[in-house]
Amino acid sequence: MRQKALPREELQVCARLRQARERLGKTQAECARQIHVERTTFTNYEHQRTPVRFEIALRFCRQFVVSEEWLATGRFDACYAVAKKEIGATHGLDSVFFRQCVDLLNEPEARHIPPGTLYSEAYNSVLKPRYQELVHKSFYYPRILFAESDNENLALNLLDAINDRFIQMLSNEAKRRKLKPSSAWRVYVRCVFEVSDLIFRKLMQFPSAKLEWLRTIVSDPDSTLEFLDAISERPQQPSIPVKRSDLVKVK
């Protein structure tokens, strides 16, 4: 018996699911495992054999920090509307908006959608107004509501999305100022690395170096990108060796 063709909107959702996975550099097996479906099921979605139910789509968007609007429609209309008001521009921001997840999976509206509803139908009939509202409230960062049942993969995916966002926006700003994009992302990477290292050492009760450049950034709101770039060229302080006996065992 010939399988009934999927509606055009659902074929496009399936195609975007595959685009998202490839764009994120994930395998089918990895995506299937993280959203708790069989690999064959995920493959059927990508090959447009099976339509994507709304709960699976929202689970994917949340787990991999992908825009629910984009997966449903292929557009960034809500983000464009807010960007025009907040920063007066939208050019070059599609890669940022691609990760503008607002965690619709955990919204009350999602809990009242009948099980098995296809994603494009659920988004257009129920979820769209809530997405638009939440994008206005959390425009500058993806929005994820963590739960006890989440694992570290979600945290890593969120950090990846945030770093992608900042590096892209800083590179755009550097170009606008006629600076090398590498000047921006190099400084950003060093700042993130050293602050993360400082926090880790504090939590682990290890000795840590004093970051005078960080104090300067915090105390001087007029610090420029050129100033930070100059600091990033300075040799980093050697790391402090840690004895095995100093490690804290976590049960």
Write the layout of secondary structure elements.
Elements: H1 8-24, H2 28-34, H3 39-46, H4 54-64, H5 68-73, H6 77-86, H7 94-97, H8 108-111, H9 119-137, H10 152-176, H11 181-204, H12 212-219, H13 225-232
Helix pairs in contact: 2-3, 4-9, 10-11, 11-13
Report on this model:
- By secondary structure, this protein is an all-alpha fold.
- It folds into two domains: 130 residues, 434 Repressor (Amino-terminal Domain) (Orthogonal Bundle); 84 residues, no CATH class.
- The protein is 60% helix and 0% strand.
- It is built from 13 helices and no strands.
- Helix 4 packs parallel to helix 9.
How far apart are the termini?
55 Å
Given this structure, which CATH class of the largest domain is correct?
Mainly Alpha
Main beta sheet: none
Could you say what the CATH architecture of the largest domain is? Orthogonal Bundle
Mind telling me the C-alpha Rg? 22 Å
**Strand segment count:** 0
Low-confidence stretches: 235-251
Work out the count of structural domains.
Answer: 2
If helices are DSSP runs of H or I spanning 4 or more residues, what is the number of helices?
A: 13
Q: What class, by secondary structure content?
A: mainly alpha
What characteristic shape results from the CA principal axes? Answer: globular
How much of the sequence is in beta strands? under 5%
**On the 0-100 scale, what is the average pLDDT?**
87
Helix percent band: 55-70%
Mind telling me the CATH superfamily name of the largest domain? lambda repressor-like DNA-binding domains
Stated plainly, the CATH topology of the largest domain is called 434 Repressor (Amino-terminal Domain)
List the secondary-structure elements in sequence, H or E.
HHHHHHHHHHHHH
